[in-house]
Design goal:
The structure is a homohexamer of 137-residue chains. The longest helix of chain A is centred in the middle third of the chain and has 16 residues, at 63-78. Chain A has a five-stranded mixed β-sheet. With 137 residues, chain A is an alpha+beta fold. Helices cover 30% and strands 29% of the residues of chain A. In chain A, strand 4 (117-123) and strand 5 form a beta hairpin. Chain A starts with a strand and ends in a 5-residue tail after the last strand. Chain A contains four helices and five strands, in the order βαβαβααββ.
């Protein structure tokens, strides 16, 4: 029942848009978020790791190492990028907040000790957030 | 294990006061919060919805629609109001942070898809919060 | 060109209302802020003092003492109070953010070393602020 | 020496890029900010108005009206837009934080009572800000 | 499914250091956090209490009393102290964020009604947090 | 009338203490801040640069370069350090918030284009801040 959290940020462009749909339907469903030339956000990522404390170090996991994993796996991929155009992780996936937290969770899950539970919380704006904890719990 | 959150704010007056009790007992139990002419807060409401992602839209639920529900059901009722005097929802109910989160949860529960779990988090001040998730989980 | 700042908070009820005007005119000018039964805010007060550093202590002014002055002069008067009904400082004064910063500035000015400049910044909500620095500068 | 402030937010895409320069030089000067497919930000705009209090209303200027001006002049133009592609205001102007605050200041200046001083503060990220007060002061 | 939260802060010095290890190994494992002359943090403590609402008061637990318990048990012990040198609670325990939340949880657990669940969330910096909920749940 | 700002943070230990004074006098003047084994803070540094926009780049000054200067001159010196014991910059200087902003201003002034005005704002806690703009303005 011990959890730790590391917070990082990145800035990216995106739009919500389904190529199978007409522009009118996209605008109807996604509103301003579907505008063709993209908009963007300062995304905040909180990564929560649940596990037990290593009595040798007093750490569940070294937060410096967690920081490095987030930088290597997430910020290097998405920071200052266009999620729709630059990021193959979103091929066929609409970059909603929800899908972004799933994509980030999947990228981190394989880098984090499988004994630990993992939760990813994304703030897209001051008002909109999502949280994903996987299906394996 | 997917959750989304919408954050909204409203400003209201209230006092903590039990009409069955004497003024002295009210002051003893509720302290400054019982002062007769009311005080007030900038309430922050975070509404968390837990459900699965609709593969058509990439949304658990459209956050624009959640925003509209919160405005219609909560802000229209309580913003710039006196919870004790203006709001029949608090008839016989002391407007503590705890009761406020229950009242808001009940108002939202009937407007939100019953397949989704619902949690309401209220910040009354920078230091005091409450969270209610219902009895049905 | 050295300034220090102390931040404190208080919670109060108020309404914007001019007794000389009809209810209709009050509603026209002040909107929701004129509702008869009051609403309220978590007010944030930032008090900035400009002066030179005392070489004995390294302080412009001891922030503990500034804290005590703010508690005694401002929080004791306004915290958990109704600015319109309970506070003679607002007799004949509409408790707008602007007037609140003037009232607080006047109350503090006489307690602060006259060699120091004084600025009072009030946040009424996350979105609305005022700042007053007096007429004597 | 009285100022009021209204805070609003919008989300936009942009890139820092000078068409007269080669891609290599753009990358050299602007780094990741020059990436071709844009990135984006949650921009925070704080508009400060300096003037004297109208004794009739207790307002320097009604913050509801200031809010409406910011929505009409700024958010309608830039929210969910690509500053480089969608906004003629940035034709020939690199959308740096600095230039953004000048553009916004110019758009607001003509809508605000000329007796009032105006300052526009932009937060591009949690770490980068700019502030512009015009040349006329 | 009702929780309340009280937020308090304290400022303390600490270093991460294991006396059984050489300085080199300490530096290897704990990095800058092992520097010999200590560094420090503005710790934020959020105490979450889960229980049911007392229908007499509308409180799970009076937040004023929770505040007093946190001041007496936690801030009196740790505020403006050196966790390694001044605090017997950390004898033989490395003052990591994780261990700090366990120590604080243990100190509070015996003061809080055993019918209530307890969670302690510590923010060491804006980027690093831990949360502990005990073993008894 | 154009200013830009970069925000950085560091964590350090310190105590307020004047060696010429007895322990009793130190405690009298500096209170808890004089405790012998140090306490610490998450210091927030905001560096404001005032100048005109370079029409070539749209920058007053490249914020990436400002970031590097702050890291090299300030964070490398003070992060995870004890201001009293480790930092010759505070030899004979009590590390109050005020003096810290002067020390940081002096270290930055010689690295920043002399055509630009410079202001350094330090947050020691959520409640205590100082700001220094030099004597040369």
């Amino acid at each position: 029942m011990m959890k730790i959290c590391r917070r990082e940020t990145f800035n990216a462009a995106h739009r919500l848009f389904k190529p199978e749909w007409s522009d009118t339907k996209n605008l109807e469903v996604f509103g301003k978020c579907s505008y063709p030339n993209y908009h963007g956000h300062n995304y905040v990522v909180e990564v929560w790791i649940e596990g037990s404390i290593n009595p040798e170090t007093g750490f569940v996991m070294d937060l410096k190492i967690l920081k490095e994993i987030i930088h290597k796996e997430i910020l290097n991929r998405f920071d200052h990028r266009n999620l729709n155009l630059d990021c193959p992780e979103f091929k066929g996936i609409i970059p909603t907040t929800e899908n972004l937290s799933v994509v980030i969770w999947n990228l981190l899950r394989i880098k984090i000790n499988p004994e630990f539970n993992l939760e990813v919380v994304i703030s897209e704006t001051e008002k909109n957030k999502s949280s994903y904890s996987g299906n394996d719990e």
